[in-house]
Structures are given as structure tokens and as C-alpha cells.
Amino acid sequence: xxxxxxxxxxxxxxxxxxxxxxxxxxxxxxxxxxxxxxxxxxxxxxxxxxxxxxxxxxxxxxxxxxxxxxxxxxxxxxxxxxxxxxxxxxxxxxxxxxxxxxxxxxxxxxxxxxxxxxxxxxxxxxxxxxxxxxxxxxxxxxxxxxxxxxxxxxxxxxxxxxxxxxxxxxxxxxxxxxxxxxxxxxxxxxxxxxxxxxxxxxxxxxxxxxxxxxxxxxxxxxxxxxxxxxxxxxxxxxxxxxxxxxxxxxxxxxxxxxxxxxxxxxxxxxxxxxxxxxxxxxxxxxxxxxxxxxxxxxxxxxxxxxxxxxxxxxxxxxxxxxxxxxxxxxxxxxxxxxxxxxxxxxxxxxxxxxxxxxxxxxxxxxxxxxxxxxxxxxxxxxxxxxxxxxxxxxxxxxxxxxxxxxxxxxxxxxxxxxxxxxxxxxxxxxxxxxxxxxxxxxxxxxxxxxxxxxxxxx
Length: 458
Ligand code: SF4
Fold this sequence. Notes:
alpha/beta; eleven-stranded mixed β-sheet; two-stranded antiparallel sheet; metal-binding; metal ion binding
């Protein structure tokens, strides 16, 4: 096996300081000052409602400032006027222009945020497990039998924010909308009791914003025999895009690489679930070095990300990205459909178009890049993949299947929806062939009512 140099361990990479900018700093971002005043005001309005955070690496190395506003990474990180519905935009803009007091502005902002479906797919009540006394176990989601999602409290932010983020509600400081755990013991106790769980997914925010010592507190105990049932540890992150120096020259980067190596050597399958939207994210020296460093530990990198208008709604972008990923040793894993929350009106792509982009991109890559599944909707009943548009007995339909379901028995069962060229999410689809309901609907409703009733009683 080839031994890559461990730069982080060697100390062979310089410690680049992390410099971050939020809404308050819009006027301090140098390249923005060359843009028209009206455009900068629009950014202020939108970032009053939706979270904004960017860092110097993204500004300097990922964005092409000669291609504004079309540059995909600019669209990925900087607020755009179209991200708010016109009535919401006008309301907040008028308040800012009038110099409204803080309380009035905050009240309006809260109302707009709550109109943006902050918790898609019933996340708050449907997926959170409870202890024996019925108390909600904050920070843990257990939606599918074998997989537990964990939201460590120190990992509930990101090195920069994606404008389309479906977890945006967590970043706007509204405690009621946060789903995070502060205790490693909450996770460990839960996993000890649930031996059916084989996969643990650390997510956020971005768990890689955590100091290595915090990650260690969560991960190292999992090497004890009582956690032998946990075979796979996945870490969802966009740090390979937004801050690859996390794996290179940061203070505790060497310790992080060592930790990953130790988990792998102890027999765990460690998978870094890297969020990518565009090949440009792979195209810097630091990004490639960070990928090499992670791969040198034996951990895998799997790539996933949503299909987003203004950023990557183009088969060539996906084909090039998948090819580059394979070349760098990353496994293409998922193409997601943009979720039904936040600024989705600006970013969504009709399901039919999403499938066309997926299909055309697949046709342009070799077998090793065809491991990406999708386009997939992470809806409340499960992950539903659009397999295609076809015609059966003269009726034009969407062919669909569950990749993952609240009931494992639903997985891989094909089902059909009436063709609808405007549909952008599962709830826009109706059963085909005159059926009243999809095959899973009654069972899903029963599961849903059970969970919601438990949530109300607690
Ligand atoms: S990296 Fe993930 S969690 Fe963070 S802003 Fe982007 S989509 Fe959201």
C-alpha cells in the first residue's frame, strides 16, 4: 500500500490563521467593496434573515471575483436578493432603510424565518429518541434502525455557511431551533442500549469545527468492546471545501489525523462524508493535500451534496466533479434534491430536470464514478430516489424507490407517481394509475401519529 506523507503529522504545513466574516463584517470584505452599493445592501437585507459566514480561504482561493454574481462559490456562500420572497425582502429592506429599532426588526425577522419551514421533514419531533421516562434526548436522531445521527454541541457551526443550507435554522441563534447535545455520555449510553445500531453519523453544523480533544471524547470510548456493534463511524463535513487547513497545519491537525488512523487500525470503518457541490472546491492545493492526508489514515472519503440552481444545475459540472473525485480517491456517494426549507424558492430544481442532469452526468463518467445515487429526496418517510420518467400503459409517470425508509421493508420497492413537470419535492407528487395513496402512506401516518403523540405526552 502506498504511504502518503502525513503532512499534518510531519508539521510540514504552515498554520494558516482562520479568519472569519459574518453579517456584521460585510463592509470589511475587501472584494465586495468593488460591487455596486445596491447589491451590497441586498446582501445586508438577506443576511439579516438567513445566516451568513465566510472565511478568508473561501474569499481568496475559491471565488472568482471577475465572475460576480454568477460564480458558483459566490452563490454558495454570499446572500443573493432572490433568496427571499419579494414580500419578505421588501418588509426587511423597508425596516433597515427606516432605521427601525432592534425589537421591531427582530420581530419581523422572526416571522419571516418561521415562514420558511425551519424544520423540514418533522425533524424536531419525528426523529428524536426518548429515554425511559420519555424525555427527549437532545442531539440524537434515530430515524433508520441501523443508523444514529449525533449532533455534538461544539460542532453546531461551520467554517462558512452554505446559502442553501437546510439546517440554516440552527445558525440564526434561535435556541428553540437547535438540536444539539453537550454530553458525550448521552451518546454513549444510548448506543450501549441500542445494539441494533451499526452506523454512527456525526453531523452538525460541521463536527470538524470541533477541537480534536472534543472529537476524541466522543470517538475514543467507541473503541471499547461494549461498542463492538458500532462498525462504521461517519463524519459529515464541509471542511475539505471551506477550511482544508483543518487537516493540514491547524494546531491540532496532527492529533486529528492520528485519531482517525487509530480508529481505523482498531477495526472501525471511518468514513468522512464530504459535502461537495462543485469541482472548484477540489481545485486548490490545500484541498488536495487535505484529501491525501485523510486518505493516508485509511479512512474513506465519500462525496455527497445537493443539486442546486445557480450553483451546479448542469450535467457537465457534476460529471467533472465526479471524475475529479475519483481521481483523488474519493467515492461519489449521493446527489440530493434541495430540501423544502429556507431559500428553496431560489435554489430548487424540478425533479424531472434533476433526474435529467443526473442521467446526463452519469453518461459522461466511467463506472467508478457511477457510485453516486440520486437524485434523492431526504423526506420524512425516507430517502426517495427518482429513478426516471417513463410511460406505463399510456400514462407518463415518475418511477421512484426508497433507498432508505422508516420501515426497512419499504427499501427498494419501486413505486410510481403521476408525471408532474413542476414537482420539486415528494409532497408535490400523487400516486399514478388512479391509486388513492402511495403504498407506504397509511403505515407512515401511523408511525408519525405515534411519534407526535409521544412528543406531546412528554
Ligand atoms: S456545511 Fe452543511 S451544515 Fe454547514 S452550512 Fe453547509 S450545508 Fe449547512
